[in-house]
Write a structure and sequence with these properties.
single chain, 508 residues, alpha/beta, Rossmann fold, GMP Synthetase, Chain A, domain 3, 3 domains, 9-stranded mixed sheet, 4-stranded parallel sheet, 15 helices, 25 strands, 30% helix, globular, binds adenosine monophosphate
Length: 508
């Protein structure tokens, strides 16, 4: 049997090819038939260029239907898709292209000169263009190709995609995902989140990342559903489209911004069935406010590039704020201490996972891959967390974010939660900064509400407010008040940026 992921998706496409797949902001519609024919033509082109199964197709393009079609065409042709964030600059691009050595690089016209130069440096034989309106030499070259391409047979173990991790420390690594990895996670989520006939997905996430490309698109495609395919998140657009949608997937920032809309509430969500949140921690406060404003309980899930989703709050049953729910069917999750032995219920340790969705390894880094897996085949996620007596998993942060002060471990989330709960605080990030005596000093970077510059929200006020609620070593030694925290496209707070910035400041 052909285990190409595209074949699996296509068997679930609606019988009627005129069924909408992507609905664009200007009202244009891409039907499932359009997607099938366009991906056929593009697959034909990729093969005609001389690429062989297993060759990489890199794309640094904006989110358009044609970009998604390029992904599907790459799968169909048996090649390996490599999406790149359009925000990546020249030196980053050079690294990715040299590392992955794609057979085809698809770029935006405005980046053509840099792309050509980089492609020459990295020995990439073909470069084609796709602009922000879905036009360009890629489309022109695909247009005359036949559209009845027969999807190339792939096995479960064959590679489907390489996604580079954000690389907060050291070199960014290419996570290799197989057709089997992606198919397993897609089917699991489709069933776990009860996708059903008539579902319409509001898609406002980028498609160079696991969340928007795999979690969101695969669920919709497996369901034969229509997606409102928006170039990016926009609260006003979301307000307009929510009444016609049934499912939305977003990063926490999306939900925070929706809550800033005065008219956001039950009426806007009257047709909605499910809101999924992930990719960054959802504040309990957002979870609670969302529920009281809309009557909907956000469903938080947890996962990463190296395996898609690992846990989810239940569809039926209690969705518990502040937790990421239970390990998904087919994923085994365990929490281990420093020595690699299991910790007791409720104790924070390192999260390790195993399952068919867990990636194959890091591209060109067999050593690194070996280091990141245990002898019994578990992947070391690098996240810290715990499991409570009911089985709910809670994330405490990245192990690299762990602050070690005077030899004692401080999990940033514990201090952050207390600071966040102070009146007038929007959010906070706790980091470790180099300290002469302690090795690292717990440091809080705090965002205040605009009009909340009261006496309590000063460095000494914040320290005083949490001092008797936390062991002394966990209380921040330094507090910085800022307008906002640096975040990446997926809403993750960039703690490495904060560490760099504040390490460079003279200490008081
Ligand atoms: P990425 O590979 O870019 O998807 O990033 C994965 C990382 O995001 C995980 O290893 C976690 O540190 C973090 N993450 C994802 N989902 C959640 C969540 N629901 N709560 C807290 N952290 C999360």
């Amino acid at each position: 049997m052909n285990q190409n992921l595209y074949s699996l998706l296509a068997t679930h496409f609606p019988k009627n090819p005129a069924t909408p797949c992507m609905i664009l902001p200007d009202g244009r519609v891409w039907t499932y038939g359009d997607v099938e024919r366009a991906s056929g033509r593009m697959a034909e082109l990729i093969v005609a260029l001389g690429l062989q199964p297993g060759d990489r197709v890199a794309a640094q393009v904006e989110k358009t239907p044609e970009a998604l079609v390029l992904y599907l065409a790459t799968l169909r042709a048996g090649m390996v898709f490599l999406p790149l964030n359009p925000a990546y600059q020249r030196h980053e691009l050079e690294y990715f292209l040299k590392d992955a050595r794609p057979g085809l690089f698809v770029c935006r016209p405005q980046a053509r000169l840099v792309a050509d130069e980089m492609a020459a440096l990295a020995g990439v034989p073909h470069a084609l263009e796709l602009d922000d309106n879905g036009r360009g030499s890629l489309i022109d070259a695909a247009a005359p190709q036949p559209d009845d391409f027969v999807t190339v047979t792939r096995s479960k173990a064959d590679l489907a995609a390489i996604l580079y991790t954000s690389g907060t420390t050291g070199r960014s690594k290419g996570a290799m995902l197989s057709h089997g990895n992606l198919a397993h996670n897609a089917q699991t989520l489709h069933a776990y989140w009860h996708f059903q006939p008539g579902d319409v997905l509001l898609h406002m996430l980028p498609i160079f990342h696991v969340h928007g490309l795999f979690v969101a698109c695969h669920c919709a495609l497996l369901n034969g559903s229509a997606m409102f395919f928006e170039p990016k998140f926009d609260a006003a657009r979301a307000m307009k489209l929510l009444p016609e949608s049934t499912v939305m997937m977003g990063v926490p920032t999306f939900y925070v911004r929706l809550l800033h809309e005065a008219s956001f509430g039950r009426e806007a969500c009257r047709n909605m069935r499910l809101f999924v949140s992930g990719s960054a921690p959802l504040l309990k406060e957002t979870f609670d406010e969302f529920k009281s404003r809309t009557g909907h309980t956000l469903l938080e899930r947890y996962g990463m590039t190296e395996g898609g989703m690992f846990t989810s709050n239940p569809y039926e049953g209690e969705r518990r704020g502040g937790t990421v729910g239970f390990p998904l069917p087919g994923t085994t999750l365990r929490i281990v201490g420093a020595g690699g032995t299991a910790v007791k219920t409720g104790v924070v340790g390192n999260i390790q996972v195993k399952g068919e969705n867990v990636f194959v390894g890091y591209w060109g880094m067999p050593e690194k891959t070996r280091e990141e897996f245990t002898g019994d085949g578990f992947f070391k996620t690098g996240d810290m967390g715990s499991i409570d007596t009911d089985g709910y998993v809670t994330i405490s942060g990245r192990s690299k974010d762990l602050v070690i002060t005077g030899g004692l471990n401080v999990y940033p989330k514990e201090s952050e939660e207390l600071i966040d709960a102070m009146p007038g605080v929007v959010e906070s990030a706790v980091i470790g900064l180099p300290h002469r005596d302690f090795g690292e000093a717990v440091t809080a970077v705090v965002v205040r509400q605009k009009n909340a510059a009261g006496a309590a929200l000063t460095e000494s006020g914040i320290i005083a407010a949490i001092k008797d609620r936390l062991a002394n070593f966990k209380v921040p030694k330094w507090v910085y008040l800022v307008e906002e925290l640096p975040r990446n496209a997926m809403g993750k707070v960039q703690k490495n940026t904060l560490r760099e910035e504040y390490s460079a400041l003279p200490r008081r």
